[in-house]
């Protein structure tokens, strides 16, 4: 009979115990076991699991291949932070998958930031193709900050407020700008309060 392990149960096991569960396929949630084992190995904060980043990344990739949502999100942010040669297209593709699956405000904000950063370019002034791409990036930045803001995320509310103030990727609307900035300020964002 297969067992459903909770995260707390898994975090209190050794790496050998979790690997035994994975190999025996004696769990309903094998991908969750792989994910927990991976994060513990990568982070190295458990006294029961030896830190082993390479092995942890392999378990993480295996969980991602099986469609484990949290593993995909963790791996995407690991790639952003630590990959020596991050593949921006793959990162964007993964962020889109995360957004499609659960509208993660963190993924929305990250994708919005990537689009925002790539929208402003002096090259756009002299090249119509680059100008068109920059406009799409502005629109996408606003789109993903709006999804985040709709979930009451303080970062999304702040930036969509700024965008409405500037008319960046959305039609300029001072009333909406104030509305979003006030909500973000009330949620504790000091920049919005300013």
Sheet/helix structural class = mainly alpha
Largest sheet, if any?
A: none
The CATH superfamily of the largest domain is identified as Tetratricopeptide repeat domain
Contiguous low-pLDDT stretches (5 residues minimum) are none
SSE arrangement, N to C: HHHHHHHHHHH
Q: Globular, elongated, flat, extended or rod-shaped: what is the shape? A: elongated
Question: How many discrete structural domains?
Answer: 2
Q: What average pLDDT do the residues reach?
A: 92
CATH topology-level fold name of the largest domain: Serine Threonine Protein Phosphatase 5, Tetratricopeptide repeat
Distance between the termini: 59 Å
Percent of residues in beta strands? Answer: under 5%
Number of DSSP strand runs: 0
Percentage of residues assigned to helices: over 70%
- Number of H- or I-type helical stretches: 11
- CATH first level of the largest domain: Mainly Alpha
CATH architecture of the largest domain: Alpha Horseshoe
Radius of gyration: 21 Å
What report would you give on this structure?
By secondary structure, the chain is mainly alpha-helical. It has eleven helices and no strands. It has two domains: 72 residues, no CATH class; 90 residues, Serine Threonine Protein Phosphatase 5, Tetratricopeptide repeat (Alpha Horseshoe), CATH 1.25.40. The relative contact order is 0.07.
């Amino acid at each position: 009979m297969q067992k459903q392990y909770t995260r707390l149960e898994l975090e209190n096991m050794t790496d050998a115990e979790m690997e035994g569960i994975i190999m025996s396929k004696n769990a309903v949630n094998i991908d969750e076991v792989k994910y927990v084992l991976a994060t513990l190995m990568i982070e190295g904060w458990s006294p029961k699991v030896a830190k082993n980043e390479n092995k942890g990344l392999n378990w993480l990739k295996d969980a991602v291949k099986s469609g484990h949502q949290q593993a995909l999100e963790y791996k995407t942010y690991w790639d952003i932070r630590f990959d020596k040669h991050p593949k921006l297209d793959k990162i964007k593709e993964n962020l889109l998958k995360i957004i499609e699956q659960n509208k993660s405000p963190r993924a929305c904000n990250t994708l919005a930031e990537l689009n925002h950063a790539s929208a402003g370019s002096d090259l756009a002034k002299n090249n119509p193709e680059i100008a068109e791409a920059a406009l799409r990036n502005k629109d996408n930045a606003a789109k993903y900050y709006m999804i985040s803001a709709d979930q009451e995320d303080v970062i999304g509310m702040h930036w969509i407020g700024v965008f409405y103030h500037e008319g960046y990727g959305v039609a300029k609307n001072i009333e909406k700008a104030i509305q979003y900035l006030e909500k973000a300020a009330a949620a504790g964002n000091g920049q919005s309060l300013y």
